Amino acid sequence: MAELNTTQGAKYIARSKLITHEAHGRVRILAAKMPAAFAQLAINDTIFIGRLPIGARILNHATVSCGAGTATSVLDIGLRSTLTGTVIDADGLAVGIDIAAAGNSKAANSGVLIAAGAEYVTLEEVDVYATVRVAVGIANQVMKFEIPYVTD
Length: 152
Prior knowledge:
The protein is mostly beta strands. It is 5% helix and 41% strand. The chain has one helix at 7-13; strands spanning 27-33, 46-52, 57-58, 63-66, 74-81, 87-98, 103-107, 120-121, 126-133, 143-150. The strands form 2 sheets. Strands 1, 3, 4, 7, 8 and 10 form a 6-stranded antiparallel beta sheet that branches. It has a 4-stranded antiparallel beta sheet with strand order 2-9-5-6, with no helix packed on it. Strand 5 and strand 6 (87-98) form a beta hairpin.
């Protein structure tokens, strides 16, 4: 029976060195929560979640937990360059996360950078941010973000 090697499997066989984020890395979590008090969020307002270092491989187990919000309000999660502020992909990590209904650990992994077997490794320090879509977000909505990644 034939065997197909993964990219990393081929490196093992060739006795090539794996890049740190490829295997046996430490999983870290970019964790952030909304402040206790803030104003209503308008459509297209952004929420700065945090920063990821160069060489971070973003895992597809990101979640958003939240209290009930405005009917039909959703978030997209994306990346932008920390240095220049240039958007890398505004919804590259997640598209259309429902924040209207309260819930724990809502999947935040539908963006093209990490969904459906895709892998994204940061080429520079990046800011992770969310964008309010479809409907305004309510003031003081409880929200927590957890975005796992591997570096070393």
